[in-house]
Design goal:
Elements: E1 16-17, E2 19-22, E3 30-39, E4 41-42, E5 45-46, E6 54-63, E7 66-73, H1 77-85, H2 104-114, E8 127-131, E9 134-138, E10 143-147, E11 154-159, E12 168-169, E13 174-175, E14 181-190, E15 193-201, E16 224-230, E17 244-245, E18 249-254, E19 257-259, H3 261-270, E20 278-280, E21 286-292, E22 303-305, E23 309-319, E24 322-330, H4 334-338, H5 341-346, E25 359-366, E26 388-391, E27 397-400, E28 402-406, E29 408-412, E30 424-429, E31 438-443, E32 449-453, E33 457-459, E34 463-466, E35 476-484, E36 492-497, E37 503-508, E38 518-523
Parallel strand pairs: 22-27
Antiparallel strand pairs: 1-7, 2-37, 3-6, 3-38, 4-5, 6-7, 8-9, 9-10, 10-11, 12-14, 13-14, 14-15, 15-16, 17-18, 18-21, 19-20, 21-22, 23-24, 24-25, 25-28, 26-27, 29-30, 30-31, 31-32, 33-35, 34-35, 35-36, 36-37
Helix pairs in contact: 2-3
Length: 526
């Protein structure tokens, strides 16, 4: 076993019982789903970027102290087309593919003439989303694939565009206490306008049957648009990967990391990948949109901060007339560049490549700004943060964050505290490179951390599972899949105590795990 991240995975679709070392808590009943790229070469062709690999899904089912593992490739249309041709014929963000080399020019010309927005892949290798009672494998295109969360079999292909006008959508939705899902998508050049669309997908209880047909209505059929936010530029919408939500507000960061739509439309013709059509504009500022969830309207205040790139929101909460939100921020777009497979093979660090490491930052947005407030005054009145929001002459607020921690990524919290003031965040330490060797618990009040690491072991994003009727925010366990590159040793699922961060158990699986992206835990309903 090695850390060759371009090596193709092998699926193990039949359930296999893992070997447990330690004692898994009896209350831990449910399934951890993980998603990530698993196939990087088909025939004589290879992907250029790790994010482009075709999805492999893993499930780890916990029941009565035992763990059962299985994995399957997502049978997307992309997968089927590539496998049928025995070569990569469907383009991904970092890899442009050409279906028939003998007809390159003709195919390129037709694509150029007929498509302002490209037809994207349905290779949902980033995360899982729950809409209603259904689970979907997702990336960030307009296509998601319904899957069976037990068998991991691929089911219906769903096109967002059949339900609402979004060409791109986040793979990190939010859920409220009732189970309604909230997400954000980008509508590109529709009727001459490009906009961001915040939408709500009702919970399973809102699903129904089609009259006289007895067919289940998918929750997306009842989607509601909460708010639309005009893009600052018609043909260069902001890239985003996630957003923040509190009980009363949604936080959307329009950052100067942009998709150039005209360049994307002509990328095929020019023989370049779509990722080359993304640009970071360090001379521009970042606009923070604060949207009232009840009215669907933006607050009157304009919030700005310096140029940054954010992939992951941590959490957001309201406190004494402020909306406080935490993000993992970069000074440029170098994170994406680090995941080109050629760079991963070098296994060099951030500084070696001239890249900057991520910063855990906290922003505070005052929700009121009286006209009598003088220019230059800091409106943030919270004592526990150094974040500021200074009024400028033209009335906007310039926000400076508090830096809580350096070198932190893949943040997860006890989701019962989403939208509430949380103390603990779980994630990976990425101080040296984008490939983490350490899983960590961060106390946002004391700024202290406790961590787990083991030689030649590479942890995934950690997932916190709260103990039923838990007595504190960190009363539960943290789950992480571990790629174990020690010779002769098996990969495993790690179970850490949420409070002490001590290992309570691990479950060795009879399969080779690979680095993945994101996932979720589905608790048993019994």
């Amino acid at each position: 076993m090695s850390t060759d991240y371009s090596k193709n995975a092998t699926e193990t679709p039949e359930p296999f019982k893992a070997e447990v070392k330690g004692c898994i808590p009896s209350w831990l009943q449910g399934t951890l789903l993980r998603n990530g790229p698993g196939i990087f070469s088909v025939g004589d062709t290879s992907y250029d970027h790790w994010f482009d690999g075709m999805s492999i899904m893993n499930s780890f089912s916990f029941k009565d102290g035992e763990v059962t593992h299985r994995s399957r490739f997502l049978r997307s249309d992309t997968y089927k087309a590539n496998m049928a041709a025995n070569r990569i014929v469907v383009s991904e963000m970092g890899t442009m593919a050409y279906p028939d080399p003998s007809k390159n020019f003709i195919v390129k010309a037709i694509t150029f003439l007929n498509h302002t927005v490209p037809d994207f892949t349905d290779n949902g290798a980033s995360n899982f989303i729950k809409y209603g009672s259904d689970y979907y494998a997702t990336s960030e295109t307009n296509y998601i694939r319904k899957i069976d969360p037990v068998t991991l079999e691929t089911q219906d292909k769903v096109d967002y565009l059949k339900y609402l006008s979004v060409n791109l959508a986040s793979s990190h939705p939010h859920y409220d206490r009732e189970g309604n899902a909230y997400n954000i998508g980008t509508s590109i050049a529709e009727k001459g306008k490009t906009k961001y669309m915040l939408f709500k997908v009702p919970a399973a209880s809102a699903e129904g049957l089609l009259p006289d047909k007895g067919k289940k209505v998918p929750a997306l059929k009842n989607v509601e648009v909460i708010c639309t936010v005009p893009c600052r530029s018609l043909l260069t919408p902001s890239y985003y990967h996630s957003f923040g939500m509190t009980d009363n507000y949604i936080i959307f960061i329009e950052q100067p990391f942009k998709l150039d739509i005209l360049k994307m439309a002509t990328a095929y013709m020019r023989g370049v990948n779509w990722a080359s059509c993304m640009k970071f504009c360090p001379e521009e500022n970042t606009l923070i949109h604060l949207i009232d969830r009840k009215t669907g309207k933006e607050v009157d205040i304009k919030y700005y901060t310096e140029a940054m790139v954010v992939y992951h929101h941590v959490n957001a909460f309201e406190d004494a007339g402020h909306v406080v939100f935490d993000v993992i921020a970069y000074d440029d777009k170098s994170l994406y560049d680090m995941f080109y497979l050629s760079k991963l093979k070098e296994n060099t660090g951030f500084l070696d490549n001239g890249y900057n490491k991520p910063s855990y930052k906290r922003f505070a947005l005052p929700t009121q700004c009286d006209k009598g407030v003088a220019a230059g005054e800091d409106l943030v009145k919270l004592k526990y943060t150094t974040a500021s929001a200074v009024k400028e002459k033209e009335g906007k607020l310039t926000c400076q964050p508090e830096v809580i921690y350096e070198g932190f990524e893949l943040p997860r919290i006890n989701y019962d505290f989403n939208g509430k003031k949380q103390q603990f965040v779980y994630g990976n330490i990425v101080e040296e490179s984008a490939l983490s060797k350490e899983v960590v618990k961060l106390d946002t009040i004391t700024k202290k951390t406790v961590s787990w690491s083991e030689e030649n072991c590479w942890p995934s994003e950690p997932v916190f599972v709260p103990r039923p009727n838990g007595e504190s925010e960190d009363d539960g366990v943290v789950l992480a899949s571990i790629v174990n590159t020690n010779p002769g040793q098996l990969c495993f699922i790690l179970i850490l105590d949420g409070k002490t961060f001590k290992e309570v158990a691990r479950a060795y699986v009879q399969a080779e795990l690979h680095k993945d992206m994101h996932g979720l835990f589905i608790p048993d309903q019994n």
